Amino acid sequence: MELTADGQRAGHGLRPLIADLDVENIADLAARAAAIPGILTLWYGEGDVVTPAFIRDAAKAALDAGATFYEPDMRGWADLVAALSGYLSRLHGRTVGPDRSTVTPGGMQAVHLALMLVAGPGDNVVFLEPQWPNIRRAIHLAGAEPRPVALEETAAGWRLDLDRLLAACDGRTRAIMFSSPSNPCGWTASADELRAMIGHCRRSGVWVIADEVYNRLSFAADAAPSVIALAAPEDRVLSVNSFSKAWAMTGWRLGWLTHPPSLQVRLGAMTQYVNSGTAPFVQAAGAAALQDGEGLVAALRERCRAGIETAWEALGSINRLRLGPRPPGGMYAFFRIEGIDDSREACRMLIEEAGVGLAPGHLFGAPGRAHLRMCVARDTARIAEASDRIARALRRDRGRGG
């Protein structure tokens, strides 16, 4: 039993779903390892590129113009909402009106709004694992039951058993939730798989919530297949997105939710009650990113692709590592070490023996419990150095009989 400093049970007096909240996360691991000198930290899903000047300058100009007040339409600053409409329409080849996007302070807020819209106590949300741990926790915080369905790891890569996914839905299911490209394994839903999910939502009334934060970090096309391109405007489909990854804006905390037009008024009210809107000068930066950032998106995609190639070349030569095929998108290598089934143990060993910080796969659900996640959205020399350190550590570990 976890106790507080005064000997009370941790969570004492709190709502049960908060008291029961799993508090282990990647940030906790990073904090414990912060004192280790020279550690290469590749556990966070964050690149190493500073937000470019044209985006920063847009925020500065907005500040200088006095954009420090409430934005009257808390669903989003008009210029950014219009920029989102233009961007999504161009990207997906169909009109996506300004009444379909609500701006949020970060993609995580968009996740919470999506779940608040559709799920609550007594409901369940079916979601794919391995999965970014925040998804499971957000379903829990909504009061719903997180119901995982495992992707299958095969010789050809991670794959979805669509029949098993749909069979997991029952009369209490309010949504199917997934990320594509996936954090952490890079699995990407095909257009046919997305159509099947949308068809199920039309027949059953279940919602589809797609985390499309890595949509532009697809290595096969300019963008991965998207529910926005395939669903009708009033289908029960929600798309979560963020400026964090494809525009190098993690610290800005800016995202959006794409939704049916009929929800815009309710989402405006929810935004007011939850956070009273997103800072207008941050939204000005987002508008600039959409208007002038296609070159940046392409460069960051290539940086991730180069990181994947470097990781596979370097890690692939280590006999004890099981990498699998290169992922079709995202910014991660997701692999396991032969002979170590506990990812906590593997991470501890690599921190202490290699000075490399990776994210333990057990945080991403049962299918990833033996895996490690390495963020490769970094300078390739850093990825190569981390791989070399891992190789040396594993040789020492093997020499000790590990």
Task: Report what the structure shows.
The chain is an alpha/beta fold and 402 residues long. Helices cover 40% and strands 16% of the residues. The chain has 2 domains: 16-50 and 295-399, Aspartate Aminotransferase, domain 1, CATH 3.90.1150.10; 53-293, 3-Layer(aba) Sandwich (Aspartate Aminotransferase, domain 2). It contains 14 helices and 15 strands. The strands form 4 sheets. Strands 2-10-9-8-7-3-4 form a 7-stranded mixed beta sheet, sandwiched between helices. Strand 3 (124-129), helix 6 and strand 4 (145-150) form a beta-alpha-beta unit. The mean pLDDT is 93.
User: Rg from C-alpha positions?
Assistant: 21 Å
Main sheet: strand order: 2-10-9-8-7-3-4
The main sheet comes to: 7 strands, mixed
Percent of residues in β-strands? 15-25%
